[in-house]
UniProtKB/TrEMBL annotation:
It comes from Sellimonas intestinalis. It holds the Pfam family PcrA_UvrD_tudor. The gene is pcrA. This is ATP-dependent DNA helicase. Residues 498-528 form a coiled coil. PROSITE patterns: UVRD_HELICASE_ATP_BIND, UVRD_HELICASE_CTER. GO terms for cellular component: cytosol; DNA helicase complex. It comes from the Bacteria. One of its GO terms (molecular function) is DNA binding. The keyword rRNA processing does not apply. It is an enzyme of class 5 (isomerase).
Length: 750
C-alpha cells in the first residue's frame, strides 16, 4: 500500500497535478496541509525531483518544522535540502547572501516591533513631530501598510500632494527609511520589500533562485499580502509550477495587510490554473463542523462552499454563560481536570482560545492554583523582556557596529555615569558628520563640549572593542557568558530591582540555553555557529514556535495564533459581544470588519476535533473597567439543535438566554440598533418600565465588592439603568443597576 492510498480522490488529484499553477481552495480540516506534505513526497519519490528544487512556504516556523518532519517520515531522505520556511525566513536567507547588491552589509540587523518604536521616537524627535497628533503606532502602521503595498517613501510623497497630514507621514516615512539604512537595519516588512527589489533589479540573482525553486508551494495562501504575492509571482514566473492552498473563510490578517484578493483572483492571474476543491472534513465531529458552517454562512463576501464529514455526530456543543470571568476560568479549569481524570485525555489535547492576550491572566491564575500544566503562547514575548533586550543589544553592537539603536540602549547599562547630555552631544555630532553613533564614539575626543564624559565614553568603546575581538575567538555562548560576567550584569539587576531580579536571572539562563541549543543544532547540521546566525533566529521566532508537542500542557492562545492547528478539546472563552466580536468592530461602520471577526470565529470552532465548549461572562474587567456584555452574536448563529448542556455541571449556572438562528439581516439590524442607539453593549436584563432602580442621585448605596459610595448619576439605557457611583474607596464606577445590586443605605448608614 502506498502512502497516497490514504488520500481521497480530490486530494490525490491535487497531489498528482505537479506541473503548472494549481489552486487548492478548501475549507478547514479538509487536508490542505496534508496534501502539501504528500505532494512534496510525491515530487521527490515519484517524479525524481531534487529536494533542492522545492520551496514550501508555511505561516510559522513551527509549521515549517512539522512539514519537514512529515516529509522525513514519508520519504526518509532529502528533507534537509528542501526549503520549508516562512516568507520572512526565506527572505532573510536570500538577503544574507545578496543584499550587498542593494548597498547594505550582509550582516544587517532585523528590527522587531520594539526596535521600530524606539526608532520612530527618534525620528519624531528629530523632525519635531507632535506625537499627540501623530501617534507613533499610527505612523508605524501607515508605513507598514505602504511597504506591504510596495509604495516607496518617494511615491508616498507624490501621492500625498494636497493632503497635509499624509505629507507629514511621508516626511516621517522618508526619515525612518533613512535611519534604518544608516543603522544597516531592516524591519519585518523590509525583508519582503528588499527581496522583491533584489529580484527586480538583479536579473542574475532572480535567475539563480528561479532555477533553484522549480516547484513552489504556499500554505495558508489566504493570508498573503501584496508584496508576498509579488514575491511568489516573480519567483514562479519561469517554471510556473506554483501550488497554493488556502481557505478564503480563514483570512484573518487583514490588519497586517493580508489581501484576500490574492486568493479570489488567482484564477484571473493564472488563467491556466487547475482549481481543486476539497470538501470533506476529516478533523471534526459533524456537530462541530455544522456549527462552523452555520456561523460562516452569515458572511456575504465569500465563495460558497459546504464542508461535510463522515465523522460521527459527537457530543453536542456546550455553551455556558457565567456571572463573571472568574467563574468562567474556574469552570474551564475544572472541566479540563475532569477530562484528564475521567476520559484519560492528556493536557495537551486541550486548548483555551480567546480573542485578546489580556484574557490569559485569569486562566493562568486558575491553572496555577489547580495544578494544571499550561503554556501561554504570545503575550509578553520572551525577547521583549528588558534583560534579554539588553544582552541582545550587546550582541548586536558587537556584530553590527552600525546598529545605533542597540548601541544607545547599552551605553549606560550597567550604569557608567554617561548622562543624557553627553549622549545627545554624540548624537548631534554623528548627525552633523553623517556617520553612525558608534563611529562618532570612536572619535569621541573630537566632539565639542564633551568634557569629562570623554574618559567614560572611551572606556565604553574599549569594552566593546574587547568583546569584538573576543567574538572572533569564542563561540556565541562563551561570548555571552563572558559579557554577563564582565559587566557583572546579574548584580546590576539586583541593584536596580531586587524583587524581579530572580526571575530575570532565570530568563538569562533561558537565553543561554537557547544559545546552547542553537550551537547544538549548528553542529548537527555541520555548520559553524555564528552570532549573526543566532540573532537572525531570534529575530524571526514567532510565538507559536515555542509550542512543543512532546510536553504535556494545556495551550492558551489567541484565536489568531491557533490557525492551522488542531486539538481534541477546544474551549472558546469570552464569547461576548464587545469582546468577540470586539466593541470596535460592532461600532465600526464597515460590515467587512464584522465579517473578519466571524472568520476568526470560524477558525476557532474548526480547531476542535472532538468537543467544543463556548463560554462567556456577563461581567468582566477590561482595561480596569467593568464591562457588562451579552452573549456573542456568533453564539446565536449556531443552530439550537447542535447545542447541548454541559454534563455534570460543576456549579449551577443560569442557562444562556439567546435568540437562535438569527439571520445575517436580523443580526445586522440588531447590531445597528445596539451600536447606534446605545453607547455600549447592553446587558439583556430587563427592568420593568416605570420601575426605578430603587435609589436616586444623591443616595448613599452599598456594593458587595466596592463597599459604600454616593450615586452621582442614573441614566436610562434602554434595557437597564446605568448608574454612576462614587465609591469611597474605589473611585467612580459606572454599572448596570440589575447587576450592581446596589443597596440603598438609610441615614444611619444601614
Ligand atoms: N484523507 C485523509 N484521511 C484521513 N485523515 C485525513 C485525510 N486528510 C486529512 N486528514 C486529517 O485531517 C486533519 C486536518 O488536515 P489538515 O490539517 O491537513 O487540514 P487543513 O485543510 O490544512 O486544515 P486548516 O484549514 O485548519 O489548516 C489532520 O489531522 C489530517 O491528518
Ligand atoms: Mg492547514
Amino acid at each position: 500500500m502506498s502512502i497516497y492510498d490514504s488520500l481521497n480522490e480530490m486530494q490525490k488529484k491535487a497531489v498528482f497535478q505537479t506541473e503548472g499553477p494549481v489552486l487548492i481552495l478548501a475549507g478547514a480540516g479538509s487536508g490542505k496541509t496534508r496534501v502539501l506534505t504528500h505532494r512534496i513526497a510525491y515530487l521527490i519519490e515519484e517524479k525524481g525531483v531534487n529536494p533542492w528544487n522545492i520551496l514550501a512556504i508555511t505561516f510559522t516556523n513551527k509549521a515549517a518544522g512539522e512539514m519537514r518532519e512529515r516529509v522525513d517520515h514519508l520519504v526518509g531522505f532529502g528533507s534537509e535540502s528542501i526549503w520549508v520556511s516562512t516568507f520572512h525566513s526565506a527572505c532573510v536567507r536570500i538577503l544574507r547572501r545578496f543584499i550587498d547588491r542593494l548597498g547594505y552589509d550582509t550582516n544587517f540587523t532585523i528590527y522587531d516591533t520594539d526596535d521600530q518604536k524606539s526608532l520612530m521616537k527618534e525620528v519624531c524627535k528629530y523632525l519635531q513631530i507632535d506625537t499627540k497628533t501623530y501617534r507613533e503606532r499610527a505612523l508605524l502602521s501607515a508605513i507598514s501598510s505602504a511597504k506591504n503595498e510596495m509604495i516607496s517613501p518617494q511615491e508616498f510623497l507624490l501621492q500625498a500632494e494636497g493632503d497635509f497630514s499624509k505629507q507629514k507621514i511621508a516626511e516621517v516615512y522618508l526619515e525612518y527609511e533613512k535611519q534604518l539604512r544608516a543603522n544597516n537595519a531592516l524591519d519585518f516588512d523590509d525583508l519582503l520589500v528588499r527581496t522583491v527589489q533584489l529580484f527586480e533589479t538583479q536579473p542574475d540573482v532572480l535567475d539563480y533562485y528561479q532555477e533553484r525553486f522549480r516547484y513552489i508551494m504556499v500554505d495558508e495562501y489566504q493570508d498573503t499580502n501584496t508584496v508576498q504575492f509579488h514575491l511568489i509571482r516573480i519567483l514562479s514566473s519561469k517554471y510556473r509550477n506554483l501550488c497554493v492552498v488556502g481557505d478564503d473563510d480563514q483570512s484573518i490578517y487583514k490588519f497586517r495587510g493580508a489581501n484576500i484578493k490574492n486568493i479570489l483572483n488567482f484564477e484571473s492571474e493564472f488563467p491556466d490554473a487547475t482549481v481543486i476543491k476539497l470538501e470533506q472534513n476529516y478533523r471534526s465531529t459533524s456537530n462541530i463542523l455544522n456549527a462552523a458552517n452555520a456561523v460562516i454562512h452569515n458572511n456575504i463576501g465569500r465563495k460558497d462552499k459546504t464542508l461535510w464529514t463522515e465523522n460521527p455526530e459527537g457530543e453536542k456543543i456546550a455553551c455556558k454563560q457565567f456571572d463573571n470571568a472568574y467563574d468562567e476560568a474556574d469552570y474551564i479549569a475544572a472541566a479540563i481536570q475532569k477530562k484528564v481524570k475521567e476520559e484519560r485525555a492528556s493536557y495537551k489535547d486541550c486548548a483555551v482560545l480567546y480573542r485578546t492576550n489580556a484574557q490569559s491572566r485569569m486562566f493562568e491564575e486558575r491553572f496555577v492554583s489547580t495544578n494544571i500544566p499550561y503554556k501561554v503562547i504570545g503575550g509578553v514575548n520572551f525577547y521583549a523582556r528588558r534583560e534579554i533586550k539588553d544582552l541582545l543589544a550587546y550582541l548586536r553592537t558587537i556584530e553590527n557596529g552600525r546598529d545605533d539603536l542597540a548601541v544607545r540602549r547599552i551605553i549606560n547599562v550597567p550604569k557608567r555615569g554617561i548622562g543624557l547630555t553627553s549622549i545627545n552631544r554624540v548624537q548631534e555630532y554623528a548627525l552633523q558628520k553623517e556617520t553612525g553613533f558608534y563611529e562618532a564614539l570612536l572619535a569621541a575626543d573630537l566632539i565639542p563640549g564633551i568634557g569629562r564624559a570623554l574618559s567614560k565614553l572611551e572606556s565604553f568603546v574599549a569594552l566593546i572593542e574587547h568583546f569584538k575581538e573576543e567574538a572572533g575567538r569564542l563561540t556565541p555562548l562563551a561570548l555571552l557568558t563572558d559579557i554577563i560576567e564582565t559587566l557583572d550584569y546579574e548584580n546590576y539587576l539586583e541593584e536596580i530591582d531586587m524583587e524581579d531580579a530572580e526571575s530575570r536571572i532565570e530568563n538569562i539562563e533561558e537565553l543561554k540555553s537557547k544559545l546552547a541549543s542553537y550551537e547544538e543544532s549548528c553542529e548537527e547540521a555541520g555548520e559553524q555557529p555564528t552570532l549573526s546566525g543566532f540573532l537572525e533566529e531570534v529575530a524571526l521566532v514567532a510565538d507559536i514556535d515555542n509550542l512543543d508537542e512532546e510536553s504535556d500542557y494545556v495551550v492558551l492562545m489567541t484565536l489568531h495564533s491557533a490557525k492551522g492547528l488542531e486539538f481534541s478539546y477546544v474551549f472558546l472563552a469570552g464569547m461576548e459581544d464587545g469582546l468577540f466580536p470586539s466593541y470596535m468592530t460592532i461600532t465600526a461602520d464597515d460590515p467587512m470588519e464584522l465579517e473578519e471577526e466571524r472568520r476568526l470565529c470560524y477558525v476557532g470552532i474548526t480547531r476542535a476535533m472532538k468537543e467544543l465548549t463556548l463560554t462567556c461572562a456577563k461581567r468582566r474587567m477590561v482595561r480596569g473597567e467593568t464591562q457588562y456584555n451579552i452573549a456573542s452574536r456568533f453564539l446565536k448563529e449556531i443552530p439550537e439543535s447542535l447545542i447541548g448542556t454541559v454534563s455534570g455541571t460543576l456549579r449551577e449556572r443560569p442557562q444562556m438566554e439567546i435568540a437562535r438562528n438569527q439571520t445575517y439581516a436580523k443580526a445586522k439590524a440588531a447590531f445597528h440598533s445596539q451600536a447606534f442607539g446605545i453607547k455600549r453593549p447592553v446587558q439583556q436584563f430587563k427592568v420593568a418600565s416605570g420601575e426605578g432602580p430603587g435609589y436616586d442621585v444623591g443616595d448613599r448605596v452599598r456594593h458587595m465588592k466596592f463597599g459604600e459610595g454616593l450615586v452621582t448619576a442614573i441614566t436610562e439605557g434602554g434595557r437597564d439603568y446605568e448608574v454612576t457611583v462614587e465609591f469611597d474607596r474605589f473611585g467612580v464606577k459606572k454599572m448596570f443597576a440589575a447587576f450592581a445590586k446596589l443597596q440603598k443605605m438609610d441615614e444611619s448608614g444601614f
